[in-house]
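Handout, page 2. Input:
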Amino acid sequence: MGDLHWYGGDAQIVATRGEIERVIAELTGLENWLQSQLEPQDFLVEPLERLRLALELPPVLERIGHIRNACIAASDSYFTGEIEISKELRSGNRPPVPELALGLIGAGNLLGLFGETSVKAQIVQVDESVAPPRSIHGLGERLASTAKVADGWLRIEKYFEPASPVTGLPGEAKYLVYIPGTQSWAPNPAGNPLDVTSNLGAISKTGSAGSERAVALALKQAGVQPNSRVLFIGHSQGGMLAANLSLTFPRSSVLTFGAPIGQLTEKLKAQVLAIEHDLDAVPKVDGRANPMRENWVTVRQDIQSAKATDPIGQHQMKGYLETAAAIDANNGSSKPESSAMTKMRDSLAGFAGKEPGTAIYFELTRQT
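Output:
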């Protein structure tokens, strides 16, 4: 694994001009490499994965270009406070990404694709006496296992604080919500709402994605109230849903793996731990760097493995679980851990408490 680094949660400056220049070079290299992956001969090897990459590549390249140019502007006038670029972006020679993206969307509309539907959430399994997770890796592991149980399944865990010594009644309920990433890549919405259509909806407008509406239905059935304490845990699309849903729960927290949530900078008030890999393009598709805020810590790692330059491998939960373990152990960082990082990690890792709880599984479906 590569170097582990983080920012946010306090007012410390986290970058130098030299570091910005390094990021610019890495973004340029990533952009060039991604474009090189779509040569005609490449489709002879893993054609399905190449087709998926071809569909997702135009907006990704556009966002990478915006971020790279924003970094160039920042290197000319070093920023303070939040990691946001306000200077005019320099012009550069880039592929006609906006036109390509508009062409794909227009073609989809003509064919009746990417249309939203009504959704449903149904309880399919209940596990009693579940031990609470006690680490960031443990939270990520349960998220990964939820995705493996069955497509379209969601896991909600319910825990109670210790009983009151005066009344003997159980304490306040706390909920952990595990939301997997995209599972269906078909452009025509079918049974599973964790699909490409929901990807578009989740990043464009909160509350519009079918998957987000289905999770909201499950939350209601699980007994989650507007003022409940909730920890949303999500990967990729699931991370976007976690961030979007937290906007309606003022006492919520968010843990994301490889999710583009920077577009919610002005709205997101929950405690947020966002885990990203340097070469994972997905967290960058919103074109916004995560802010440097007291409620928001971003942890990044340059994972080094046999698939270190593979955009698909960079995004998988397998790699993110390794990063989560490094975060728990504060292993892989060349600098002392900040108090903000320690506080955020300990808060989320111990969110569920020490008493056993209940796990409820929901099947999320589209009504087509």
